[in-house]
Amino acid sequence: MPPSMPALIDDVEPGLQPISLIPDNPGEADASAPRTAAEPGDGFLAVGNAAMAGLSAVGLGMALAGRVLRFPRLPASVQGAVVALEHQPRVRRLLEERIGKRTADTALGLASTAANALAVAPSILAVDLAVNTFRAVEARADTRAWSRRAPHLTRPAARAEGPSDARTPEAPAGQIEQHLQRNSWVQAIGATVAGIASRDPNLAGNAALATVPKAARSTQEAFAATLGRGLADKDEALQIDPDSLRRLDRIDVVILDPRVLRSESLRLVRLRGAGEKDLAVWERAQAMLADDDLQPGWHPVPGSARGRGRATEALFAPAPHPLAVATLAQTQRAEVQAVTVDDAAGVGELRPAFDEIIPLAGDSIGDALLRTARTYQQDGHSVAVISSSAAQALSAADLGVGILPDDDQPQPLDADLIVDGLAGVWRILHALPAAKEASRRGVNLSIGASALGSLLLIPTVRGNGPEPVVLGAAAGLMSGYWSARNVVNARLPRPVPVDEWHAMSVEQVRNALAASSESTSAPDAADSAQRNIVWQFLDAVRDELSDPLTPVLGLGATATAILGSPIDALLVGSVLVSNAFLAAGQQLSAELRLNRLLAHQIPPAWKVTIRPDGTRDRVQVLPEQLQRGDLIEVGPDDVVPADARLVELEKLEVDEASLTGESLPVTKQIDATPGAEVAERRCMLFAGTTVAAGTGLALVTAVGPDTEVRRAADLVTSRHSDIGLGHQLGQITNRTWPLSMVAGGLVSALGVLRRTPLQQAVGQGVSVAVAAVPEGMPVVATLAQHASAHRLTKSGVLVRVPRSVEALGRVDVVCFDKTGTLSENRLQVTEVRTVAEHSREELLRCAVRATPSAKGQNHVDATDAAIVAAAESVPGALAAEPADAHLPFRSGRPFAASVFGTELTIKGAPEVLLAACGDVADGMDEVVEQLADEGLRVLAVARRELDPAQLATLSADADDPDAQLNALTKLCDDGLTLLGFVGISDTPRAGSAGLLAELHRRQVPVRMITGDHPTTGRAIARKMGLQLTAEQVITGSEWESLSGKEQERAVAERVVFARMSPANKVQVVQALERSGKVSAMVGDGANDAAAIRAATVGIGIVAQGSDAAHTAADVVLLDGKI
User: Fold this and answer.
1) CA angle 680, 684, 688 (to 5 degrees)
2) Is residue 607 within a helix (H) or strand (E), and if so which, with residue range?
3) Which residues, 6+ apart, have CB-to-CB distance to 881 below 8 Å?
């Protein structure tokens, strides 16, 4: 049995019971022996690292004294041999097998320090001192953290029941380890060849010193030590294995225990039984959540049994942890696979965030996690396991991250790292890409330093071979330190609210908001203020210099300068810098033009305060000043400032096209809409949508980044850096660089054979190698991009990211938003079906008179405006005088009616009007269904002649509006004559069908993503020429039930994605990108912005309310033409 953990410091607290580190049976401590010789928190490691730092300081002092006093130096041959042994993986492995890892590190470090001190090499010792100081500070911080946490770590430990099997196969090496392995051969061969060729052992020693991979190790150590110190100082993580943070760059699979992604609070998932659609039953089920003793699972809803029938049952499940979404999003940013197991409770809406979900197959969760980890390890992956109780899986993982459970649960002491919760897990995952990038930079610095150091070995070249190695190591220290500091200082993500406001009654919403102590304050001024234009320019230059060609050209230029050709180096350097400045200036210019284009005043919000006497005060505030629980009022043409739950309304209709893609205004209601998708939550207002008609009063439930429309932005990992000619050239250079190096080496060798001076021969070889790099091509590409962008601007196209012009030529699939992109988001009557002897003119006349405008003004409702436009060609259709009486649409009354003289005209929902018509021909239901299948919104139109008694009743009630409305409503209940139906749809944008046809001709697949109903989406797709079957349409709810791998298969097979939320749109684009497709996303609304940013090429169309899409896009169509 492995030891539980070290004996904690006994004097931390009187009476504290330390946890024994000695196994009950010493004979069992073999296969599962401690991962480290020093136990965490006992101070041994801190003392050892401090001692090594002290010895490095002593050695540095000796070396400085030796340089000043001109002491005799140890020969370079001896120094090189001793230092080289420290960086030979095979030698180190043999020592570790015999004396242990820590002892081997100490022995090799002492030998290297002594050799460098005796060789009077203060610069090398200064770097060693810095590295050892980093380690000592990390160990000291970790010891303090263990001491602070000791009182909370005295519970029993969750340990594996038996020793875990040895890892098979051996864990794959990371970037640093691979480089050390390769470099060991280069070092050994290079030193040997140099010694034999020159017959000078000191030159062989200098060759060994010049090829020491010091930059690679120093970068990794600085990063890991700084990160470890930061985590310990913030009490975000405790290290059980001090080497765990040095393995971060190897991790490519993260397996999460599904239990750690759940919170302690429960939520209502769904109902089953006779009352599952009864709102009152839903409200009673919601009330059950107030019971603190409620457990997950199915429970009967009180009072839901009807007669002798069974009671309706409610399913309660744990709500996702507020940081679960951010944690899983971080795995995508880290470009690692996210895997979990599918237990009984499931992962719910988190399912799409996982690349793979493994079934339990009869195992416990812990056994399934262990089996999954072993499977991925056998496939050659490095695996991290995150759990609070799966001891064996944590022990078997390449990196085990244990989460401290509740007070009465055992502790996960088989882990390598212990964190408090998902905040610590997020920090570790946030460090994964930074660790990989730090290792990559360390390897590049090491290669470059060794290459330049080798050139300095040439007798006629001024300089010392090890000098570039020391400079590279120092640069690696700074690089690793700043990378880790950025990780440590990164802000924790915002917790995602888990409340389902749309499923609650108004009273439940009031109580929940009143009980919540959370509030969303305005963003910091520093965050919201626009950065100085100089810093924007410098950031753009930095991005351009991150081109893959830059390190190669920089190394070549430096080598050329060392070999005596500074003019050539200056030319190459000027090409690099001028190209970066030109491209950055072009991008910044486009940004400034776009900012001027989008400059506008943010619409204010109306905040309402209710006094004790019931009077209401209205005050204008900025949307960012709102907080959860505030009461806001909205009216016609208002832009909704925040997500909110409606508590009062009057004939409220909202245009939600910018969020859901629904082309028709949505009629709002007060009643809850439990179990509804975003597009069907009629009791909610969403930020960024526009009020089409009516007024409403609502309680703010989310502001700023927590709103539905902006939540999708958290799913976007980063902008693509692998587009454009620069990336293509980088890939070509990576393939040809080894060949060009061989060619350069052959040229140098031939020069030596021809007795050319060594410096000249090597210079010729370097020139040949550098000549294979197309350093002029980026400049040519940048100039071509600038010219193309300038020409496109004249055509109404603004190119914000120049590289996107090239990437457009490599697009594999184009995703289109429907509403506002392929269509104009403007309704029109596209179908008129009359009944019997009634004419089209009569039908349109009655339809337009059923909803007269107020005092001759334009119609606010988009449906009414479409009918008016269709009836303009009918003589006498538009009434010159106002209606004698009018019954408007409202929630619960799906029709509108008007009285002109003796005629009552009515239009509304077909199912309601058909029931009120006396004699209706057979087949009318089929007509309605047929029109609906064509993606049309269908309205029935009817009329009725009123007799004198009925007219007298309406006239008598003229002074009492409510009585008149009631009387008119009764007249609409029966006795109607059906005239026919009108079909209304969104207007296709001019050129949409031709564009899709051209893409089809060029064999570029198309995906249409919409918030509309699947029937509407399929019908619109067919009208625009897309030939598809019902199996090629998928809805948002179906999409959310798929794992990441399943989504990748779905995007390859499906064409229309209906009822998709902004987050769903991002996931569709990301699934295409993960499957290896170069995607373009075309959209116009705020709901498209995140998906536009996620695509390789984002294209924004100028339309009303599309500022967010413009800001995210690489290319902006200024004239709105697609």
Assistant:
1) 100
2) strand 605-610
3) 900
HSE-CB of 38 using CA atoms within 13 angstroms: 21
Identify which of 289, 645, 357 has the alpha carbon closest to the alpha carbon of residue 501. 645
Name the 3-class secondary structure at 57: helix
Task: Return the closest-CA partner of residue 1117 out of 679, 900, 672, 798.
Answer: 798
Point out the catalytic residue in the list 817, 884, 1012, 1107: 817
d(CA 348, CA 1041): 8
Name the residue among 793, 728, 789, 724 with its Cα closest to residue 586. 789
CB 416 within 8 A of CB 401: yes
Do strands 313-320 and 297-300 pair parallel, antiparallel, or not at all (unpaired)? antiparallel
Of 429, 266, 269, 295, whose CA–CA distance to 349 is shortest? 269
Q: In 3-state terms, what secondary structure has residue 599?
A: coil
Rounding to the nearest 10 degrees, give the CA dihedral for residues 472, 475, 476, 479: -160
Owner of token pair 């993500």: 493
Instruction: Report which secondary-structure segment, H or E, holds 1080.
Output: strand 1079-1083
CA proximity to 220, closest of 135, 302, 332, 329 = 135
pLDDT digits (tens, 9 = 90+) for 296-313: 888 888 877 665 567 788
pLDDT tens-digit profile of 411-464? 888 889 999 889 999 999 999 999 999 999 899 888 888 887 777 777 666 656
3-state secondary structure labels for all residues of 1028-1053: CCHHHEEEHHHHHCCCHHHHHHHHHH
Domain-by-domain residue ranges, the chain? 44-150+170-231+431-484, 249-303+312-419, 605-703, 787-821+988-1117, 827-986
Structure tokens at 301: 């809803």
Pick the CATH number of 605-703 from 3.30.360.10, 3.40.50.300, 2.70.150.10, 2.60.120.340: 2.70.150.10
Question: Is residue 820 within 8 Å of residue 844, measured between CB atoms?
Answer: no
Active site residue 10: no
Q: What does the DSSP assignment read for 236-289?
A: SEEESSTTGGGGGGG--EEEE-GGGGEEEEEEEEEEESTTTT-HHHHHHHHHGG
Architecture, CATH, for domain 249-303+312-419: 3-Layer(aba) Sandwich (3.40)
CATH topology of domain 827-986: Calcium-transporting ATPase, cytoplasmic domain N (3.40.1110)
Whole-prediction pTM value? 0.77
Q: Which residue has the tokens 């008179």?
A: 849
Query: How far apart are alpha carbons 585 and 536 in whole angstroms?
Result: 10
What's CA 571's distance to the chain center, in Å? 41
262-272: strand order across its sheet: 262-272, 313-320, 297-300
Please tell me if the domain spanning 249-303+312-419 has the same topology as the one spanning 605-703. Answer: no
Residues 6+ apart with CB under 8 A from 1076: none
Eight-state DSSP code of residue 797: E
**pLDDT value at 20 more than 90:** no
